UniProtKB/TrEMBL annotation:
Entries under SUPFAM superfamilies matching the protein: Ribosomal L11/L12e N-terminal domain
Organism (species): Brassica napus (Rape)
Similarity comment text for this entry: Belongs to the universal ribosomal protein uL11 family.
Presence of the UniProt keyword Thylakoid in the record: no
Gene: BnaA03g53330D
Name under which the protein is recorded: Large ribosomal subunit protein uL11m
Keyword presence, Ribosomal protein: yes
Source species taxonomy: Eukaryota, Viridiplantae, Streptophyta, Embryophyta, Tracheophyta
InterPro entries: Ribosomal_uL11 (IPR000911), Ribosomal_uL11_N (IPR020784), Ribosomal_uL11_N_sf (IPR036796)
Amino acid sequence: MAAAAKDIVTRRAVAGTIKLTVLAGKASPETPVSPALGPYRLNMMAFCKDFNARTQKYKPDTPMAVKITAYMDRSFEFTFKSPSCRGTSRKQLGLTKGAHVRGT
């Protein structure tokens, strides 16, 4: 019971949750980062530097799904998922689109 009360006291107020797809190692304060983070007045350069540092181990230009939690005090936390199997397979095979005929 005491642990639950302590958790409630230390919980920060969430301003919003943002979902983006950003290329690994290529985050910059341009689209799509700037329009998404701007309304929450988050530090875009801090996000870009941290994201690029954490995605160095992935191949450049790999699309990464990012979930950013923005807090009322203008701080943020983010998590990203590893690249999707579909996107990775498509890139390795050199395909730009899926099948032209449905069901093949």
